[in-house]
Amino acid sequence: EAKQQGKAGFVRYVDGMGEPVLAHMQLGGELRRALDNDEFRVVYQPIVRLDGRRVIGVEALVRWHHPTRGVVGPGEFIPAAERTGLIVPLGRLVLRETCRQAAAWLAEFGPDALKEAGLNVSARQLHDPDFVDDVSAVLAESGLPCERLVLEVTESAVLRGQQVSRALYALDSMGIRLALDDFGTGESSLSLLRAFPAAIVKLDKSFVDGIEIDDGQPAAADARKAVARAVIQLAHALGLDTVAEGIESPEQVAALRELGYTLGQGFHLAEPMSADEISRLLAAQQDQDRFPVRGKAVP
Ligand code: C2E
Ligand code: MG
Ligand code: MG
Ligand code: MG
Which residue numbers delimit the EAL domain (predicted)? Predict the structure, then answer.
């Protein structure tokens, strides 16, 4: 039976009752089992200075090491984890692992090597009345200073009313930095920035895609550039940091730098990697005093 599951994937493997709802229930059961069996792992994608390519932070991204399907990305199970509420224990696991790891990097490489470690938090977690206390307890237990933790939330998660808003303000007042993830894709990005204690804005990949193109489709590229420009102007005016997401080419780095972006994340700079690989990268960076993984250092 396990083999069939491996071949078929989650939606089809509910034999004879192929309703999506049932498949989701099945996936919920699988997720519960996976939590019990310790099948989730955290990888870290570097956040990099665009002028010289130093790693200044990481974003934690969860992976499911399924016994038959191999490594499964979060796009395939986070929605089900949210629906079933399993995102709460799963998120706690990612939080604990990230804080523990970030504290270990701090101890090994000192305060200047990695400024911060971020992780994604879903609306369902922010609705959990224990969330703020959990974060506080995990930080205390790990020894990671509050200001080195970044919690990434999306615009739609933030727009979920009083309870979420209270949680966000409580986290902010603890000194934790909040990042607005996938910024620009929501419906009320700009007004949200006033109503929410963000420290960081992450420009969504959709505005980075094609930003380097000067001919071919000038209109489309100009529109993206206009959003990217408006976002950084707004961020500067409000005193927020920015990170450009999904950078896949040196031309995009150049276009973003021209607009004033100083931090970025993307496959061109560095892919998500294991904690050990991050450690090697930080060690190499300490030796060479520059980012050694990929791409040429830009003076
Ligand atoms: P996100 O928070 O916006 O994370 C960035 C995603 O973009 C990651 O996908 C990353 O691997 C991918 N990415 C980074 N650079 C590039 C690039 O240059 N090109 C392209 N095409 N993609 C790039 P991933 O790991 O599959 O995660 C997808 C989403 O799943 C995340 O988007 C986040 O919303 C969610 N997620 C991941 N881990 C967690 C978690 O622990 N908890 C929660 N609640 N959500 C998570
Ligand atoms: Mg994120
Ligand atoms: Mg993002
Ligand atoms: Mg994204």
Answer: 24-286
